[in-house]
Automatic annotation (TrEMBL):
Family (UniProt): Belongs to the glycosyltransferase 2 family. Plant cellulose synthase-like A subfamily.
Keywords, sorted A to Z: Cell wall biogenesis/degradation, Glycosyltransferase, Golgi apparatus, Membrane, Transferase, Transmembrane, Transmembrane helix
Cross-referenced Pfam families: Glyco_trans_2_3
Protein name: glucomannan 4-beta-mannosyltransferase
Source taxonomy: Eukaryota, Viridiplantae, Streptophyta, Embryophyta, Tracheophyta
SUPFAM superfamilies: Nucleotide-diphospho-sugar transferases
GO CC annotations, alphabetized: Golgi membrane
InterPro entries membership: Glyco_trans_2-like (IPR001173), Nucleotide-diphossugar_trans (IPR029044)
Chain segments annotated as transmembrane: 52-78, 383-413, 425-451, 524-544, 550-571
Domain Glycosyltransferase 2-like: 215-419
Organism: Oryza punctata
Biological-process GO terms, alphabetical: cell wall organization
Gene3D superfamilies tied to this protein: Spore Coat Polysaccharide Biosynthesis Protein SpsA, Chain A (3.90.550.10)
Enzyme Commission number(s) from the entry: 2.4.1.32
Single GO MF annotation: glucomannan 4-beta-mannosyltransferase activity
Amino acid sequence: MSSSGVGGGVADEVARMWGELPVRVDWAAVAAQWAEAVAAARAVVVVPAVRALVAVSLAMTVMILAEKLFVAAVCLAVRAFRLKPDRRYKWLPIGAAAAAAATSSEDDEESGLVADAAAMFPMVLVQIPMFNEREVYKLSIGAACSLDWPSDRVVIQVLDDSTDLVVKDLVEKECRKWQGKGVNIKYEVRGNRKGYKAGALKEGLKHDYVKECEYIAMFDADFQPESDFLLRTVPFLVHNSEIALVQTRWKFVNANECLLTRFQEMSLDYHFKYEQEAGSSVYSFFGFNGTAGVWRIAAIDDAGGWKDRTTVEDMDLAVRATLQGWKFVYVGDVKVKSELPSTFKAYRFQQHRWSCGPANLFKKMMVEILENKKVSFWNKIHLWYDFFFVGKIAAHTVTFIYYCFVIPVSVWLPEIEIPLWGVVYVPTVITLCKAVGTPSSFHLVILWVLFENVMSLHRIKAAVTGILEAGRVNEWVVTEKLGDANKTKPDTNGSDTVKVIDVELTTPLIPKLKKRRTRFWDKYHYSEIFVGICIILSGFYDVLYAKKGYYIFLFIQGLAFLVVGFDYIGVCPP
């Protein structure tokens, strides 16, 4: 018997048995019931939920608008009335009078007066934490060792947590080279990386020579302060006993390298020029940026020292210090060169840490802030609501939920109507307020906003991770530096210029592992691709059926997600 005959017999038997069943399935009725259930769920669950998200998103957007307008008004007032830090606080050059006296003194008294002038300079510790910083270690160490300050009144402390033995050896040799030039530089290592950067900074304060120091200047490995950095910042601490921190501004040496670095420059310029300035002027508080700042050691001790409970140890210390009544001052005229991450992978890791850490810290300290008795009610409101809730929670969540979820979903639901002011006017004003930080990049505003919306996907995931204390909450990945600071044109006028050449200075202690070839599908970011496709489909539905007019935004926003998803942003790592 053929197989076709057997198959046909089985099919006939199944059909006969199905026909003898007492129950008949009316597929049309099943489809109608299913459609009715879906319609009921849509009316009872989906539409009300989306309406609630619209209301919450609009409320948060208005909160952000109010915060941006307030910051802009404060900064305009500071500029109009010239309320610079040296007018709000006492600032006098250290040792200027004694140095002038020494210059005009008799020969036999000159040495004594010069010694008195040097004694007027407080002891300063300069900390440089490092972790496998092959590309930039010479730049930061060289800049720190070139600071204008009496050599017997400053200690350079290099805290090397490197796991690469070759890099560790290079850093130690660099420190010895500067020691040979008479610089008081200490090379410190520890047996483990417990606490990451916070652990290294905390361990660095335990050395005996630190007890003589009053202030700490901190620089990450890619930061290069100008020689007069201490001369311009330390006087604020010397002459104002209530100040705990002097924060300076970052200047980016590779801002023009690619669109990714241009976008970062726009965001960070607004942060420093406006957010930090406003916080310093009104509340004498802002988040410590972790580098390019000078701390009073007594304030660090008073706040409980460095803690590694979150990935934002700098913000943690700043919040605890302000709750003890200490004040901060931001000095925007002092700029420190630094490098922006130019690969998207490095930028994603950095943004995860910067978004997860604050949310996690807010969860740990929200009650402590409200219960504090040492700061005023308005300062607590600013810290709890403005700094944390609006700046670190609402800003991350509303960007993705509103612009990348609610607006696309509303296209599929004709019952959902979003007011024009919430779609156009308010977001436009917020964007313009933030864009003034970098006028030279104003022509990139639209691309910048689209990219920030894409990054909101990672920031909201990181913020939720921090609040729930799940998964990658304590993940610390050091931001990769490519040594882009080397691309700046060197100053050839000075006689002590150090020429940096790319040579192998030492034989590796361990064989260099061959890098495994990356498979092509590992290069893509599938969450961005998925969101981008969904947004573009919503755009097509708007064109063909909904007719709400959101399709232009949806198309370009979806395309932005796809560009990032296929890794066409930033530079390719070497």
